[in-house]
């Protein structure tokens, strides 16, 4: 959860509005979304062998939980990620460890268990190495590059490019209607040279959010953020938030 909060802060500072940040288990996410996402990045929890030189505490952590411990978690995460990937979608798996059982063997697990998945060969560059026992992956070793140790592999889900939305999400989209907005909010938004779809504006506990297109927050999930935090309603006035300010260009705000 603490890392999710750090992620949220970075997303807001970079002015990214089209976001949804949760802190949930993969199986719970897969149960809500189904094959929804066009692209998924798995920055998998791992034994961190590639970080030993950089952080001595990683060695202590490794002694408590080695590669076998993390490989079980990685298999669970990747199985659920495949469930959430839309046909035609891409899945990038990455770790900061050298262990084959957390790297190439996880990719083999995906390919053997999910026949709809195929490996996309990553191009090598100066200092990069191919996979060990599985061509097409990419490895970075600290004695070959200016950096630490990493592994990555790209997979493609066969099939069309159409997202298969779950019934729950479809029902949510159909039921979402534009509610009357407070006058102070409407007045402030009129100062911004940008179109806001009223049906995507959600007010919760006096906080005002602008939801991503075709997205309805699922009640089953815990969210740190749904879309762009526009600001807060306070005593009949609207106070814009930093997240909104970071998305604006200089010529978009009239005053």
From TrEMBL:
<dbReference type="GO" id="GO:0003723">
    <property type="term" value="F:RNA binding"/>
</dbReference>
<dbReference type="InterPro" id="IPR049560">
    <property type="entry name" value="MeTrfase_RsmB-F_NOP2_cat"/>
</dbReference>
<keyword id="KW-0694">RNA-binding</keyword>
<feature type="active site" description="Nucleophile">
    <location>
        <position position="96"/>
    </location>
</feature>
<keyword id="KW-0808">Transferase</keyword>
<dbReference type="Pfam" id="PF17126">
    <property type="entry name" value="RsmF_methylt_CI"/>
</dbReference>
<dbReference type="InterPro" id="IPR018314">
    <property type="entry name" value="RsmB/NOL1/NOP2-like_CS"/>
</dbReference>
<feature type="binding site">
    <location>
        <position position="43"/>
    </location>
    <ligand>
        <name>S-adenosyl-L-methionine</name>
    </ligand>
</feature>
<keyword id="KW-0949">S-adenosyl-L-methionine</keyword>
<keyword id="KW-0489">Methyltransferase</keyword>
<dbReference type="InterPro" id="IPR031340">
    <property type="entry name" value="RsmF_methylt_CI"/>
</dbReference>
<dbReference type="GO" id="GO:0008173">
    <property type="term" value="F:RNA methyltransferase activity"/>
</dbReference>
<feature type="domain" description="SAM-dependent MTase RsmB/NOP-type">
    <location>
        <begin position="1"/>
        <end position="158"/>
    </location>
</feature>
<dbReference type="InterPro" id="IPR029063">
    <property type="entry name" value="SAM-dependent_MTases_sf"/>
</dbReference>
<comment type="similarity">
    <text>Belongs to the class I-like SAM-binding methyltransferase superfamily. RsmB/NOP family.</text>
</comment>
<dbReference type="InterPro" id="IPR001678">
    <property type="entry name" value="MeTrfase_RsmB-F_NOP2_dom"/>
</dbReference>
<dbReference type="Pfam" id="PF01189">
    <property type="entry name" value="Methyltr_RsmB-F"/>
</dbReference>
<dbReference type="InterPro" id="IPR023267">
    <property type="entry name" value="RCMT"/>
</dbReference>
<protein>
    <recommendedName>
        <fullName>SAM-dependent MTase RsmB/NOP-type domain-containing protein</fullName>
    </recommendedName>
</protein>
<dbReference type="GO" id="GO:0001510">
    <property type="term" value="P:RNA methylation"/>
</dbReference>
